[in-house]
Amino acid sequence: MRICIIDDNISITGMFSKLLKMEGHDVVIANGGRAGLALLDNDIFDATILDISMPEFSGIDVVDALNKSGRIKEQKIVILTASSSPNEDLEKLKEKGVREVLKKPIQLDSLVATLEAVSKS
Amino acid sequence: MKIRYTLTIILATLIAAIGITAIVGTEIIRDNNFEVINREIPKTEAALEMEINVNEMITDLLKILDQKGGIEKFDKDTNDFLEFNKIYKELIRTDEERIAIKKLDLAFSDYVDTSRSLISTHSEQVDKIQERRDLLNLSIEEILDEKLQQPTNFEMKSINKKFQALNEMEINIHELISASRGYLLKPDAFLKDRITDSVGDYRFFENQYSQSSLTQSELEYFETLKLNFNTAEMLTHEIIDLEDSLIELRFKLNELSIEIDDILDEEIQRISKEKLLEDDQLSIETIDNLLIILSVLFIITLSTGFVYSTRLGKRLAKIVKVTNEITGGNLDVSISAKANDEIGDLARSMKTMAQKLKQGNLQQEEFAAMITHELKTPLVPIKGYCEMLLNPKFGELSQDQKDAVTEILQNASQLQELIQNVLSAQKLSVEGMKYSYEDIDVDKFIEQIFKTLAPYMTDKKISFTKSIQKGMKMRADKSKLVEVFTNIVQNSVDFVPDTDGKITIEGKLKDNQIQFSIIDNGIGMPKDKQRKLFQKFYQVDTSHTRKHGGSGLGLSICKGYIEDMHGSIWIESEEGKGTTIFFTLPMVN
Q1: Fewer Cβ neighbours under 10 Å: the N or C end of chain B?
Q2: What's this model's pTM, rounded to 2 decimal places?
Q3: Contacts of A12 in chain B (CB under 8 A)
Q4: Overall fold of domain A2-120
Q5: What is the ipTM score, two decimals?
Q6: Out of B378, B388, B423, whose CB is closest to A108?
């Protein structure tokens, strides 16, 4: 799979990248919301890992932008969030077109499984 | 305006009103009386003066009659009477008084006219009496001057009839003289008789003498004597008549005085009575008016005070309501803080307090959110890399290395749990303050809960049933109630056996409350552990692993929620036989 990772935490993007490469997937990284959007505008990925809390341009902003440009359906977004918000908020995200919402910290094997499931859907 | 000022003003107004009414009232009464007195005293005094002067006039008259006083005093007293009469007339107000004073005037002028004519008659008569008296004295002198030419020899006198008669005549003349003189001094019936008798006797002996033989000179003398005696007798009679008519005068005057006295007395009595009645009338009227004014003022002030304090009470009640809302966790209450008094100050303080609390809550929430992110973020790569290290695709490790990495991973997981616990506790303590109550249909609610909790039963294939009494309604915070059910049911899920596990939710009406029971056929718990069950952080069995982040807070939080929602929660359990958790909630009609 070709996976896009959008997260401002270099440690995390580094780790995800190593993990996915280890499993034999291709990874493209963006360390900010705008950079990530630029990637998504110009390319199609099998799945995208999107972090919510990023400075300046958050994951939510990215989702809204994709909704505006209508590209939300083709980019299969998996949101990664550290917040333990009530389920309703996360449901709203799904209504906006996000495929899955995963909570940090996450078990790596379930992350990979989710990505595979999302990319096939 | 500040409350203490308003109340002071109301109280002061009331007291002032009462005070003023009292003062003004007494002033009015006094003034009325004063006015009355001012008018009445002179009038009464004038009347009394009139009476006094009439009495003086009576005395003056008597004095004049007794020749001890003069007409000047009588005239003076008459003038005084007329003066006071004038004053009196100026002060009278009613027609009755006018009629009465007319009567009085008539009577008085009658009296004065009669008195004056009587006085002049009297003085005439007195003059006449004086005249007669003088003449009488003269005649008596003449009689006495005459030598009676009597033989000096007493014996001779008694033998001769002629001389006897002459003697008798002499005696009677002396009688007449003394009786007349006496009568002049003091008119007396007895003296009158003596005069009459002596005249009679004299006449008898005069006749006798005249019948005896008389010489020429005796005859001459006898003629003179007879003449003088006749004059004296006439004068005496005239004097007696005059004196008699004077007595009659006195009598008439006396009657007149009594009459005028009576009229005056009547008048004065009438005046006094009228004055009293008038005074009474005025006082009663004044008092009535005062009472009305006082009552009205009293009612007004009382109503004002009542309305004001009712308003205060209502405003305070509003503030209490707001406070309760804040206690219940609703920090968005609207507080009307416009008033400029102490209650307004209170309202403003409450508003500030609510805002501060809200701020505080927000700060806590923000803090929690920040912490969540910051603390959790490093754990991702820590756990991630540990997992990757354990993955052979990432590279082979020696057993020792694998063990080491496993240790790291476990510790990271524990750290994660700890963070989660702390965050949960933090969140709950903030969330726990907010309650939004609803009237909840029990049947519908339990059905939803049932659906939500059903997934938990699949792993162990637990038999999940419910038995809810129909038509019940309860008052509770929905989301917190969901948490309570979830917590308890999850506990039961953990403790029921792997096969044939049974969990039942029951709900019925008991003692005017809704009573729920969550019954499981799990391992139960001993009595000593039952007591500690609802304590914070207490975990019955720490070795149990759970899907849900077990923090041991679950049941203590449930207890907190249930009790905050005016219910109670308790456990019945027997080791090996199962556990039932009961809790109650208020019913809604």
Answers
A1: C
A2: 0.43
A3: 377, 380-381, 384
A4: Rossmann fold (3.40.50)
A5: 0.85
A6: B388
